[in-house]
Amino acid sequence: MSFPQRRLRRLRRTPALRRLVAETRLGVDDLVAPLFVREGITEPQPIASLPGVVQHSRDSLRKEVAELRGLGVGAVILFGVPERKDAEGSGASDPDGVVQVALRDLRDDVGDDLVLLADLCLDEYTDHGHCGLLTAAGEVDNDATLDRYAEVALAQADAGADVVAPSGMMDGQVRAIRGALDEAGHDHVAILAYAAKYASALYGPFRDAVDVTIAGGGDRRGYQQDPGNWREALEEIREDVGEGADMVMVKPALAYLDVIARARAEVGVPLAAYHVSGEYAMLKAAAERGWIDGPAVALEHLLAIKRAGADLILTYLTREIAEQLA
Ligand code: PBG
What we know:
Blueprint: H1 15-20, E1 31-38, E2 45-46, E3 54-56, H2 58-70, E4 75-81, H3 98-110, E5 115-120, H4 142-158, E6 163-166, H5 173-183, E7 190-197, H6 204-209, H7 231-243, E8 247-251, H8 257-266, E9 271-275, H9 277-288, H10 294-308, E10 312-315, H11 318-325
Parallel strand pairs: 1-3, 1-4, 1-10, 4-5, 5-6, 6-7, 7-8, 8-9, 9-10
Antiparallel strand pairs: 2-3
Helix pairs in contact: 2-3, 4-5, 7-8, 8-10, 9-10
Bound molecules: ligand PBG.
């Protein structure tokens, strides 16, 4: 009388059977490596709260990207750390700004073999640390910021970006950027919109990585989303797709798997998820203490993000996962 008891376990008996019926697979093609490049340094600088991640020099970035390519990684997203910051975030749109220089280097090195994405925001470049321009009263000025984003998009496209990724959460940013790109003949440059980006406490290590402190102990709750809201995330995503986004993103990832799953059901465009700095740092800290098996948890977390519905994952784990899967 053994008929029903083993029904669900039968296909779990051997690794080969489990492989045959796996619903979700993680591959190096799913991953995008976030990379930091800092102006004016000659040696890469470690980032204390992101063990294993560095601020690259111009040369070390080229070397890292060559190695990632060798491991089969297909895409990187660049973040710049400028030498000087100012109120307008001038470095973000300077043709000789740190990311533009890096994009030109990498385009020379890799041709079309690797997708080059550029994070499009001002916070790394502004002295006040906000993602947009400020009014005299110190508020983030939505529409004035859109004009700056258009300038940044053009600089990044001119320098060779395949994809620009606006992360500032201004209303109308995708429309403004699409319009500017098209008008300048960059209609082939795609937009990955950070569509549902939450005002998360998990971005702390990233802000160390790009040397950003928000002036006056401020935060981004005036433009990033409230963590309790999911319907609003779908509004953001529909809006961005309507404005011309080619891909949309949910960020962070693990605490927002429900949002990823709902977004997947909602739209047909490719869906990205950002496994952010704080998610990486928590994993590394626990693994360092020997409290969890780091590589196993890393794979489980990324697989879960895929299972929830993400097509691509931006993660600081990209290099080690590529090595693990190689
Ligand atoms: C803004 C931006 C941030 C991140 C990506 N783009 C920081 C923020 O919104 O404060 C966070 C990424 C991470 O934590 O890994 N340019």
